[in-house]
Amino acid sequence: MRLVQLIGALVLASCTEPQSRLVTPAQIVGDAIPSPLTETAGSVPAGLSVFTDRETGHCVLCHQVAGLATEFQGNVGPDLSDVAARLSAGQIRLRIADYQIVRPGTLMPSYYRNHDLYQVAEAFQDDPVLSAQEVEDLVAYLSSLRIEDDDG
Ligand code: HEC
């Protein structure tokens, strides 16, 4: 009886889960989405504004980047000043799109998903928080972040 219930729950989960995700298993290789989500390449300046803008990404709520002219920067998430030295563009892309795939239960919101497990304003419930182009702009911006501290 319990096994039947478990199987029922799994079947139900497998039916409902993919519909809420925009990232398909085919796009994922390891912990990365290697291919861009859009034809138009991401723009570093556009990514910087998505990163700091309250109306769009507002990533500075939880992340810091050295040298950024934003007065308040949170520290709930890791410092991203040197993120390109740690993660490839594809790894950054999956983490922005749907970090829950990498680490279920993470505090990092899913930005390219139809709806989120975490508190999302009603207005965002049927749309991803960011457009595919905004995700690409962020990937371009973050991929440019490297601290040049070696004098070689
Ligand atoms: C509510 C807080 C919060 C917000 C807002 C947030 N993040 Fe995060 N982020 C986190 C946390 C926490 C982690 C660490 C996740 C983990 O390890 O579970 C993280 C991890 C990351 C990582 C991986 C860093 C590494 O060194 O592994 C990237 C890249 C990232 N966030 C980008 C973004 C971008 C881009 C935005 C804005 C669109 C954003 N985050 C908004 C909390 C947040």
Description:
Residues 12-19 have low confidence and may be disordered. The protein has helices at 2-20, 44-52, 83-86, 89-102, 132-143. With 152 residues, the chain is mainly α. Helix 2 crosses helix 5 (132-143) and helix 4 (89-102) crosses helix 5. Helices cover 38% and strands 0% of the residues. Residues 57, 59, 61-63, 76-78, 83, 86-87, 92, 95-96, 103, 106-109, 111, 138, 142 line the site of heme C. Heme C (HEC) binds next to helix 3, helix 4 and helix 5.
Share of β-strand residues: under 5%
**Based on the structure, what is the oligomeric state of the protein chains?**
single chain
Domain count: 1
Number of strands: 0
**Which CATH architecture is right?**
Orthogonal Bundle
Number of distinct helices: 5
Would you give the CATH topology?
Cytochrome Bc1 Complex, Chain D, domain 2
Cα Rg: 17 Å
Overall 3D geometry? globular
| Mean of all residue-level pLDDT scores | 85
The CATH fourth-level homologous superfamily = Cytochrome c-like domain
Span of the ends, CA to CA: 67 Å
Identify the CATH class.
Answer: Mainly Alpha
Hetero groups bound?
heme C
Secondary-structure class: mainly alpha
What portion of residues is helical?
Answer: 25-40%
Order of helices and strands: HHHHH
Low-confidence stretches: 12-19
Task: Report the sheet with the most strands, covering strand number, pairing sense and barrel closure.
Answer: none
